[in-house]
Write a structure and sequence with these properties.
The complex is a heterodimer of chains A (about 120) and B (about 110).
Chain A lengths: L4 E3 L2 E4 L5 E6 L6 E7 L6 E7 L2 E4 L8 E4 L6 E5 L8 E8 L3 H4 L3 E2 L3 E5 L1
Parallel strand pairs in A: 2-11
Antiparallel strand pairs in A: 1-3, 3-8, 4-5, 4-9, 5-6, 7-8, 9-10, 9-11
Chain B lengths: L3 E3 L4 E4 L4 E7 L6 E7 L6 E6 L4 E3 L2 E6 L4 E6 L8 E8 L4 E3 L3 E6 L1
Chain lengths: ~120, ~110
């Protein structure tokens, strides 16, 4: 998706384990979003960054979820003490300056998390 | 209540059929509107923007009614390749909120 890379693509975690999911947008992607997509559902908003500033984290489902983007480029979504209900695809998306006008979010391929 | 609500689907239609999807949004401050398409196990991709005057892109027509907070997508002469999930998306200025999606299957 236009240079947005996510890793790992697949992650299996045991319940209670901590996981970290990485998103690497290309240079110039000012705004970065994280979404959670459960099977058969649309992407649910988690959090949003503009450069390094986390402007909205209202979608994070609990305090076990934490996201950061310390240098305004790579972002990490961390989930502590994973639960089975955290199983989903975690999508990272970005747009460059002016992207809000076009509405074209570029998505990574997602990180599929399965919690056993 | 979710910010963006869509027809639950699924829609199963024959090739050549016309199919319409509807979407409502709850936040009157929403500024711009879009339809995205998502293929199975793939990431969502922008299909088209939605303007108040209505806009068309080939077989696809999108319409916005701000007064009713309602968005629609019409697909004419549907093709097998149109089979996908269609996501209604609303932008409040600095974030993008997605509907749950409507799954379309076009059959021969």
């Amino acid at each position: 998706g236009a240079g947005v890379s996510q890793s790992p693509r697949y992650k299996v975690a045991k319940r209670g384990q901590d996981v970290a999911l990485r998103c690497d947008p290309i240079s110039g992607h000012v705004s970065l979003f994280w979404y959670q997509q459960a099977l058969g559902q649309g992407p649910e908003f988690l959090t949003y960054f503009q450069n390094e500033a986390q402007l909205d984290k209202s979608g994070l489902p609990s305090d076990r979820f934490f996201a950061e983007r310390p240098e305004g480029s790579v972002s990490t979504l961390k989930i502590q003490r994973t639960q089975q209900e955290d199983s989903a695809v975690y999508l990272c998306a970005a747009w460059s300056l002016g992207g809000a006008n076009t509405g074209e979010l570029f998505f990574g391929e997602g990180s599929r998390l399965t919690v056993l | 209540r979710k910010e963006v609500e869509q027809d639950p689907g699924p829609f199963n239609v024959p090739e050549g059929a016309t199919v319409a999807f509807n979407c409502t949004y709850s936040n009157s401050a929403s500024q711009s509107f879009f339809w995205y398409r998502q293929d199975c196990r793939k990431e969502p991709k922008l299909l088209m923007s939605v303007y108040s005057s209505g806009n068309e892109d080939g077989r696809f027509t999108a319409q916005l009614n701000r007064a009713s907070q309602y968005i629609s997508l019409l697909i004419r002469d549907s093709k097998l390749s149109d089979s996908a999930t269609y996501l209604c998306v609303v932008n409040k200025g600095d974030d993008m909120r997605f509907g749950a999606g409507t799954r379309l299957t076009v059959k021969p």
